[in-house]
Amino acid sequence: MGSNAATGPAGPASKTGPRVGLFVTCLVDLFRPSVGFAALKLLEDAGCTVEVPANQTCCGQPTYNSGDRADTAAIAKSVIESFEGFDYVVAPSGSCAAMLKRHYPELFTGDAEWEPRADAFAPRVFELVSFLVDVLGVTEVEAAVSATATYHDSCSGLRELGVRAQPRALLGSVDGLELKELRDADVCCGFGGTFCVKYPDISNAIVTKKSKAIEESGADMLLAGDLGCLMNMDGKLKRRGVAMEVRHVAEVLAGMTDTPPIGGKL
């Protein structure tokens, strides 16, 4: 995704709202750009000036979780340098937002130069829906989607950032949408980034249970705030022969459901 603003991170804002740097995330950029455009729409509708730094990279979570602190630090420095000029940094992913907000300060503990920069950077980082509700005070969206949906709480967003009530509150304002609560909505889907690669049998057992709960919900649409979780659950549902529309919550909140669902046509 390219920047929608004429100026770079150091340039002046063209609106009176907060100046937001959109951290697109690797999966959104490579597999589901529509989520990035939905996030952009939601933020601009809320009055923000949004820019997408072209030099942004991965948040560094895969290397961090694999114990490679040196490469993670190099990635984190690049991210901080790209985004520290903004009022806020927002990501349509609890997982990536948690990495930036919770783990960057830990990564640079004791570093005379980078610890204070990470400590100043972290409080300005937010997951998308949490930012809309908790920071901007958004209580409703102008969207209409005729569907029955269920919502999965992704681990990082829920446990590290406290994202649970916010998406449900905004989904409640979507015209025509009925929300059915998912059994064990707060239980992991089995993705966990590199976890599903390192421990495929355990991952498969977890997502099998999750997919059964999703099917039993009676919903025709599955929503979540992390694309990795959604891709994992969608793949398992399809392998089990369950026809369900799977989307990122931002697409529904932005009313941008004209694109094919995750995984293609049902």
In short:
The chain is of the alpha/beta class and 266 residues long.
Account of the 3D structure:
There is one protein chain. The chain is an alpha/beta fold. It folds into two domains: 19-134, no CATH class; 138-253, Rossmann fold. The chain has 13 helices and eight strands. The protein has helices spanning 26-31, 33-45, 61-65, 69-83, 94-107, 114-121, 128-135, 155-161, 165-171, 195-198, 200-216, 227-239, 249-253, and strands at residues 19-22, 49-51, 88-91, 125-127, 144-151, 175-179, 221-224, 245-248. It has a four-stranded parallel beta sheet with strand order 2-1-3-4, sandwiched between helices. It has a four-stranded parallel beta sheet with strand order 6-5-7-8. Helix 5 runs antiparallel to helix 6, helix 5 (94-107) crosses helix 8 (155-161) and helix 11 crosses helix 12. Residues 2-14 have low confidence and may be disordered.
